[in-house]
TrEMBL record:
Family note: Belongs to the TMEM214 family.
Keyword NADP among UniProt keywords: no
Primary role: Critical mediator, in cooperation with CASP4, of endoplasmic reticulum-stress induced apoptosis. Required or the activation of CASP4 following endoplasmic reticulum stress.
Region (Disordered): 11-52, 83-131
Cell location: Endoplasmic reticulum membrane
Topology class, membrane: Multi-pass membrane protein
Protein name per UniProt: Uncharacterized protein
Any one GO CC term of the record: Golgi apparatus
Subunit structure: Constitutively interacts with CASP4; required for the localization of procaspase 4 to the ER.
Organism this protein belongs to: Vitis rotundifolia
Protein keywords: Apoptosis, Endoplasmic reticulum, Glycoprotein, Membrane, Transmembrane, Transmembrane helix
InterPro entries given in the database record: TMEM214 (IPR019308)
Length: 437
């Protein structure tokens, strides 16, 4: 080993001097300078520059220092980039959270942070008149021609498709725009008749009526009953909703109620006699007789009366008049509605002539003897039993009595009628009621 190498080795071992046996004397070194580290990763090195002997050691140390500094710089840059990305993500989240904090949450220290749901855009309100004005008679005529050919032997399907056409036309009309229960309950019979046909274009109404008139009596009768059941189903749903029954409210029918009323009104006006065929069902089934169903029944009879006054009076005397005799089944509001209907029928142009000429319909009298007896008792009660409605009965009684006694004199049917009337007339006379005739 040469001398320089020995010296270097001694320096690396940290020896301050060589043994005397080696022939070297004690060597003193300049005082080391204390340089602060560049960073936590930089080693503490103090190179010597006063001797060429240590130049290789200096060079080696500087290389290691440079590599360490480069590694530290790379690590620091990566850490800074990562920290910047984290800060950016946090800043974005904070911005989003702030946007969803309702006003006043900052004042509460952010104790309650509730996300504000975006409001759904409100659907434009479409009235019955708006939807009806968009209907086109030519389009309807083409549709009816098509379904009549496609389902030539299935009139029930034709009528269902007919209802679907109007259902689509009024699909955008909400229940709030057509509160039919409120309308029927609060309207007079005169206004009730126009609900909701007053909005239907005349050409659409005529096209529909002509087509309905070509359907069979039986098919239209079944169709009318189906429409009526739809209305009662909707009534039950609303009554369940009022009582807080969510289960019932979820069973709402998909058909537009506007369309149901429109199609039913047109059917009753063009085929009014189908209502007489449904009378036994409506009288026997309790679901058609409750007090809350009365406005619907009155509305239906008023629509049929528009097509045939005789049918209207027949339905009134056979279904509604008996309700007036029951104290528990008729309150003042119901009595008023029932009387409004018959007053409307009797006030129609030429009603007296029409009703007397049609006093007998298919062997059935419009005002049978039993109905005349009820009318007599309501018109001529005991003085202590008179009510506000008594005067209204007195006004209509003469015309209704004429209709009850109309017919071919001397015929077998008329003799039977007179016999029945005589029997209860004698009974009434015994009770002090002498103003029957």
């Amino acid at each position: 080993m040469d001398e320089n190498s020995a010296i270097i080795e001694a320096i690396l071992r940290g020896d301050d001097h060589q043994s005397q046996d080696s022939g070297w004397k004690t060597v003193s070194y300049s005082k080391r300078r204390k340089n602060p580290p560049h960073n936590s990763l930089q080693p503490s090195l103090t190179p010597f520059h006063n001797s060429d002997v240590f130049r290789s050691v200096d060079q080696h140390s500087e290389d290691r220092l440079r590599r360490a500094q480069e590694s530290a710089a790379t690590a620091a840059a990566a850490a800074a980039a990562l920290q910047s990305a984290v800060r950016s993500k946090q800043h974005s989240d904070d911005d989003d959270s702030d946007a969803e904090i309702p006003a006043g949450a900052a004042d509460n220290g952010g104790a309650e942070v509730k996300k504000v749901k975006p409001k759904k855009p409100k659907k434009p309100k479409v009235s019955v008149g708006d939807a009806a004005s968009k209907m086109d008679a030519d389009d309807l005529a083409a549709f009816l021609l098509d379904i009549s050919a496609s389902y030539e032997t299935h009139q029930d399907i034709q009528l269902m498709r007919f209802a679907d056409y109007f259902g689509r036309a009024f699909a955008s009309v909400s229940a709030a725009q057509f509160p039919w229960m409120k309308i029927l309950k609060e309207s007079t019979v005169a206004k009730m008749i126009e609900v909701p046909l007053s909005h239907i274009p005349e050409a659409v109404y005529k096209t529909s009526g002509d087509w309905i008139n070509q359907r069979s009596f039986e098919a239209v009768g079944s169709f009318v009953l189906w429409l009526l059941d739809n209305i009662h189903a909707d009534l039950a749903i609303h009554q369940g909703t009022v009582k807080g029954s969510k289960k019932v409210a979820q069973q709402a029918p998909s058909k537009s109620q506007v369309a149901i009323f429109v199609v039913l009104a047109m059917s009753l006006r063009r085929k009014p006699e189908v209502l007489i065929s449904l009378l036994p069902i409506m009288k026997e089934n309790p679901k058609y007789q409750a007090q809350d169903k009365l406005p619907v029944t009155v509305w239906m009879i008023s629509q049929a009366s528009q097509g045939d006054l005789a049918v209207g009076l027949y339905m009134w005397t056979h279904m509604l008049l008996p309700m007036l005799s029951g104290k528990s089944s008729c309150n003042p509001q119901s009595r008023d509605l029932i009387l409004q209907l018959v007053e409307r029928i009797l006030s129609s142009p030429k009603s007296r002539t029409i009703l007397i000429n049609g006093a007998v319909r298919k062997g059935e009298r419009l005002v049978p003897p039993s109905a005349l007896e009820l009318l007599m008792r309501a018109t001529f009660p005991a003085p202590s039993a008179r009510v506000k409605a008594t005067e209204r009965f007195e006004a209509m009684y003469p015309t209704l009595k004429e209709v009850a006694l109309a017919g071919s004199s001397g015929s077998k049917a008329m003799k039977q009628v007179l016999l029945q009337i005589m029997n209860f007339a004698i009974k009434a006379a015994g009770e002090g009621e002498t103003k029957l005739f």
